[in-house]
Amino acid sequence: MNFAQRRIATFIGTGLLAFVLTSCSTTNTLPIFGQPQSAADTIPTGTTPNVLEDLDTNTTRLLWTDADVAYYAALSVGGDQCLVIVDDLEAVSGCSTTLPITVQGGDNVRMMLAENLPDDSADWTKVADHLWTAS
Questions:
Q1: Which residues contact 31 (CB under 8 A, 6 or more apart)?
Q2: Where are the alpha helices (DSSP H) in the chain?
Q3: Which among 56, 53, 108, 109 is positioned nearest to 81, based on CA atoms?
Q4: In whole angstroms, what is the distance from residue 69 CA to residue 54 CA?
Q5: What is the signed CA dihedral for 117, 123, 64, 111, rounded to 10 degrees?
Q6: Does position 28 have pLDDT exceeding 80, yes or no?
Q7: What number of other Cβ atoms are within 10 A of residue 102's Cβ?
Q8: Which of 118, 126, 116, 91 is nearest to 105 (CA)?
Q9: 123: CB partners within 8 A, 6+ apart
Q10: Cα end-to-end span (Å), the chain
């Protein structure tokens, strides 16, 4: 094999290796972020600004509402997944690079954002896709 053929073979081999390595890596991002955002998915304007500053507002997805409380999944500006709880235009959130994410809201109710219920989470009750509660 001459020098030019070795360079071409090396280039092709390197390209294939890069493709294999990147195609095998998986992200822990919820599938709902691959769906289009609807009007119902947007967090109301006037919600606590310090929570909204950190979110990519184009990624918010409404998961569930309970009385006057709304629960959203979102991605942060840095790409972390977040669980956002909005109650009467006040909000709390928790973000992480990995799931599950838990956030404690009012009345000591804990909420969890996850793809599936982790094995060590027996006390949780599913209330919506990707959302569980425990008190």
A1: none
A2: 3-24, 49-52
A3: 56
A4: 20
A5: -90
A6: no
A7: 16
A8: 91
A9: 134
A10: 69
pLDDT (tens digit per residue) in 81-123: 999 999 886 889 999 999 999 998 767 789 999 999 988 888 8
Q: Name the DSSP class of 11.
A: H
As a whole number of angstroms, the distance between CA 111 and CA 123 comes to 11
The pLDDT, as a whole number, for residue 48 is 84
**Amino acid (1-letter code) at residue 90:** E
pLDDT of residue 47: 83
Backbone dihedral angles phi then psi of residue 20, each to the nearest 5 degrees? -65, -45
Closest CA to 127 of 65, 69, 49: 65
The pTM (predicted TM-score) of the whole model is 0.77
125, 134 Cβ separation under 8 angstroms: yes
Confidence band for 8, pLDDT divided at 50, 70 and 90? very low
How confident is the model at residue 12, as a pLDDT?
41
